[in-house]
Amino acid sequence: MYRVAVTDFSTEIKNLNNLLVLLVLLFFVLSTVIILFSKYFVKKSIRPVSDAITSQRQFISDASHELKTPLTVIINNVGNIQKAISKNFIQTENMELLKKNINGIDEMSERMKHLTQDLLDLSRLENWHDRKEQMVKIVLSDIATKECLYFEPVFFENNKELDYNIEDNISVLGDANKIKDLISILLENAMKYSLSHTTLTLNKRKKDIVLSVENDVEKELSKEDTVNIFKRFYRLDESHSSSGYGLGLPIAKEIVLMHKGEIKVLSKNKKVCFDIYFHI
């Protein structure tokens, strides 16, 4: 006599179907997550390149704009001289006009020279950031004191005051010439924009050596100014446009970065203060 055994697999089949659905859903969820993360990291990796291209285009545009004015003046003055020569107008009564044209060429040539030198300095500084082996121990206190002594009579001639409070025997690892340039840029900027008084201080604060240059101003910096002030060719106002190209503070920032430091600007109570932090 034979017996037939029948087993009910419906529960197992149902469980397998549920597992299959779960696996399919999990596949789609993981695929979506992977795609989203991939897009995020691709955008993040491309963004610096995109920003660099945008920055480069803006730099070329700004540099071209700054060079356009002196080049136009030079071309016009050369044209005037050429006309005078071609028409034999070089006589005593025309000498004064020719001198003005030549002086204009000379002045604009000097401006272009300074502009190109500043641009070269910026380019060189950007390649200095990782050259720690070229840094030596320098006495920052002595450098700051000497720069203040150099600038003190210049401030006086412009009917302005320069005070300085410098702590003795403060040393940092760095490049002496670049530090001189840094302090010079900050003092020149202060002299240009201050109403009457500038103060330079140098001291130690916990784990930092802090160099501060503070000056009074007629108008405080806006939030936009504090964000853009270290960008190339950015100038606070047009009243000082003839005395610079907006490259001083970007150079100062690059020098600070070269020394692995930080530079910050704060504006309140009719004053502007630049703080430079050298980490000990």
UniProtKB/TrEMBL annotation:
Catalysed reactions listed for this entry: ATP + protein L-histidine = ADP + protein N-phospho-L-histidine
Localisation: Membrane
Residues annotated as transmembrane: 20-42
EC id: 2.7.13.3
Keyword Kinase found: yes
Keywords: Kinase, Membrane, Phosphoprotein, Transferase, Transmembrane, Transmembrane helix, Two-component regulatory system
A GO cellular component entry from the record: plasma membrane
GO MF annotation list: phosphoprotein phosphatase activity; phosphorelay sensor kinase activity
Gene3D superfamilies reported in the protein's UniProt record: 1.10.287.130, Histidine kinase-like ATPase, C-terminal domain (3.30.565.10)
Major site of localization recorded for this protein: membrane
Domain Histidine kinase: 62-280
InterPro entries given in the database record: BphY/WalK/GraS-like, HATPase_C_sf, HATPase_dom, His_kinase_dom, HisK_dim/P_dom, HisK_dim/P_sf, Sig_transdc_His_kin-like_C
Keyword DNA-binding in annotation: no
PROSITE patterns in alphabetical order: HIS_KIN (PS50109)
Gene Ontology process terms (BP): cellular response to phosphate starvation
Protein name: histidine kinase
Annotated source species: Lachnoanaerobaculum saburreum DSM 3986
